[in-house]
Amino acid sequence: MTENEVIERVCRLASDFNGGSKSMVDLVAESNVGGRIAKLTVSNLAPYFAQHPDLSYDWLRWSASKRVTSGWFFTRNGADFVVGFFPKGDVLSFQDLAVACAEFVLREVRDIAKRHRKIFGIHW
Question: Which residues contact 38 (CB under 8 A, 6 or more apart)?
Fold first, then answer.
C-alpha cells in the first residue's frame, strides 16, 4: 500500500466506522498505519481533508459520539474548531476545518495505536 493510500484510509476511518460494524481499533489496524505512523503528519493529512470536507464532519460526529473517561476530542465552537484532550489536557483552536481535523485524527490514531501497540507491532 502506498503512502497516499494509507493517508486516504486513515482520513476515511470515521466514515468507515459509521457505515460498518468494525471497531475503530480494527479499522486502524486494517489501514496499514502501523509501520507508517511516524510518517503521518498534519501537513500530509490536511490536504486530503480539504479536498473531502465531508470526511471532517464524519470525524466531528465520531468525536461527539465517543463515550470515554479520557481521550482526544474534536468539536466546533462558533467559527472555530477545537481539538483537545479530555478531561484536563491541551486544547488547540483552529479556524481551518481541514487542519483541525488532521490534528485530531493524527492524535486519535496515534493514541489508538499506542494503546494497542501489540496489535500494530509498534514499540514506543
Answer: none
